[in-house]
Amino acid sequence: MNLEEQLEASRQQLATPLEHVGGIGPQRAEAFRRLGLCTARDLLFHFPRDYQDLTRLDSVDQLQDKQLVRLRGMVLESESRTAAGGRDMLGVLVGCGPGRVRALWFGQPWMATRFKPGQDVLLSGQVRMRGCVWQLSHPRVEWIEADADNSRPDQWGDQLLPVYSLTEGLNQHALRRAMKAVLQAYLDVLPEVFPESFLTEHALWPLRQALEQLHFPADSAALAQARRRFVYQELLVLQLALALRRRREQDRAHAVALEPTAKIDARIRRLFPFEFTADQQRAIGEVAA
Question: Across the strands, what pairs with 184?
Fold first, then answer.
């Protein structure tokens, strides 16, 4: 099979509809279509919009007052009540390993519907000791979705969890599972656009390695290297497109070549109603030539 045939075979495989990708099926494929994702290639290049960093977390037993922290824990209970001044207050007790913290929100009663016992969450904010409990007021909260059997999401590794744009009928766990499936089935089909020598010269990762690490990075260094590959490729394609556009503009700007004849000389002279000087005569001759 020659190169052209290989590329065509690759194109056809990557055009596989998502309903035919293992683990997705027709019903879930319809949800993907609402995101504009119809084929295996579309899903492969549906990049995460963010990552949940599970590698840099603080421990409750090492907290200090007014410290900015990042804690992972499980929701134990939540309580809504009216605080002093008549404001609504939501308190959520979270178990973080050997200790507990309480997250507080004021004037946001709708938040109460978002917390249920057993949820795995990330809390970020400034911690204060109140009584015998560490408290965070209005922390940033991220929900870490569990597997279908409600186990913790450690199958992805305690690392950088990809966070994707979603639509109704899709959650992060389902999209991660689909991404794992499409990577396993179609990653090796992707053709590399750069020669190996070019990759080596510019210290770029191969496409397949970069794509896999962009979706499920082993660590922040791997994520940075994967991003570098795609940023470099995108900027190079942009520069090539601009160069081609400049070339087309230059080609269109060139006048049609005219065969030098006595008619050109005569047409020039008819434009000027006066006698030419010797220098002007010479200039007209040069133009006509």
Answer: none
Token reading at 22: 């293992």
Q: What is the DSSP string of 136-170?
A: EES-EEEEEPPPTTS--SGGG-SSEEEE----TT-
Nearest-angstrom CA–CA distance, 176 and 81: 37
Residues 68, 125: Cα–Cα separation, whole Å? 5
Taking the C-alpha atoms of residue 162 and residue 156, their distance in angstroms, rounded to an integer, is 9
What pLDDT tens digit does each residue of the chain (289 aa) get?
Answer: 677 877 888 889 999 999 998 888 888 999 999 999 999 999 999 999 999 888 888 999 889 999 999 999 999 999 998 877 778 899 999 999 889 999 999 988 888 899 999 999 999 999 999 888 999 999 999 888 765 444 444 455 457 889 999 998 888 888 999 999 999 999 999 999 899 999 999 999 999 999 999 999 999 999 999 999 999 999 998 999 999 999 888 878 777 777 878 888 888 888 888 888 999 989 988 888 8
Which contiguous run of DSSP H or E holds residue 23?
none
Q: For residues 162 and 51, is the Cβ–Cβ distance under 8 A?
A: yes
The per-type count for the chain, helices as H runs and strands as E runs, is 9, 8
Cα separation, 143 vs 135, whole angstroms:
18
Question: What are the Cα distances from residue 35, in Å, to 108, 196, 215?
Answer: 30, 34, 17
For residue 289 the two structure tokens come to 């030539």
The residue type found at 139 is P
Cβ(172)–Cβ(148) below 8 Å: no
Please, are residues 17 and 39 in contact by the beta-carbon 8 Å criterion? Answer: yes
Cα(first)–Cα(last) distance of the chain, in Å?
55
Which tokens hold the place of 108? 């946001």
For 254, the token pair is: 């060139």
Buried-state track 88-98, b at ≥16 Cβ within 10 A, e below 16: bbbbbbbebee
CB atoms within 10 A of CB 67: 13
